[in-house]
Amino acid sequence: MGLLLDSFWRAVAYCLHPRVILLSLLPLLVMVALSFGVGYFYWDAALAAVRDWLQASALFSTLWGWLAHVGAGELSQALPPLVLVLVLVLTPVIVVLSLLLVALMMAPAVLRLVASRRFPDLERRGRGSLLGSAVWSLGHTLLALVALALSVPLWFVPPLILVLPPLIWGWLTYRVMSYDALDVHASAEERRDLLKRHRTPLLVMGVLCGYLGAAPGLVWASFALFAIAFAVLVPVAIWIYTLVFAFSALWFTHYCLAALQAQRQQALAATEFEVLDAVPQAPRAPIALPHEP
């Protein structure tokens, strides 16, 4: 518990580091530039396609008639851009690409920052393979998706829907984040041993990070209520995603590297004790007692 809380507060403090703040804003700037570039070339065609789709829908045709009846027919012209921005672009594309950029740009930088500032003498025994990390993440993501799909029938039991999805995503978070935090510094044997010994606190960290990841959903809900403010709320939501990811990466990095350092110190102390215990002791000479007259 001490290591869990210590790494938590260190992660919070590191989130205020100028480099972390800059890294959290960098994916947002990239996504804004990408969005403007895509919109410049494809906005008109996409808007026309969405308008045709809405006009061909019987449901929306009824909605248009009702809006015209109540004197709000101009909303039918504002709805296609809103649907295009909110549903067809922002949610499935911009957010996913933002998280991908965050993972590629922030995770290695966060690891280097923590390692250089707090663990400069920690020996690097891992491979640091990008391919290995990708395979590990993809494999565990597929397992989590399968578990999530199998658990869907249990969601209709009221308490379980609040427990099973966070537990599954928490398991995925702890497995992926822990691997990334240890891939450079820990050998395969050290990583397996550490993940086994610290499974419970790491799972707790993953679940808590999963709940934190739901925070941008409040912004999306606000976006649905105040669509006129989408230009402000959408960047805020994306920035919260990146900041939560940065905090999660910092928390797991601090915890895992501190646990690895303690594990090596314990192994070194145990080895030295075994060596000292194996050294044969010289027989002691008998103590001569004084001769009594």
Beta percentage is under 5%
Distance between the termini: 68 Å
**Shape designation:** globular
Total strands: the figure is: 0
Q: Helix count, per DSSP?
A: 10
- What class would the helix/strand composition place it in? mainly alpha
Q: Which ranges are low-confidence, i.e. pLDDT below 50, for 5 or more consecutive residues?
A: 84-92
Could you state the order of secondary-structure elements as H and E? HHHHHHHHHH
What is the count of distinct domains? 1
Largest sheet, strands/sense/barrel: none
Instruction: Round the mean pLDDT to the nearest integer and report it.
Output: 74
- Using only CA atoms, what is the Rg? 28 Å
Fraction in helix: over 70%
Structure characterization notes:
- The chain has 293 residues and is mainly α.
- The chain has one domain (2-270).
- It is 79% helix and 0% strand.
- The chain is built from 10 helices and no strands.
- The longest helix is centred in the C-terminal third of the chain and has 49 residues, at 230-278.
- The chain is globular and about 90 Å long.
- Mean pLDDT is 74; it is low at 84-92.
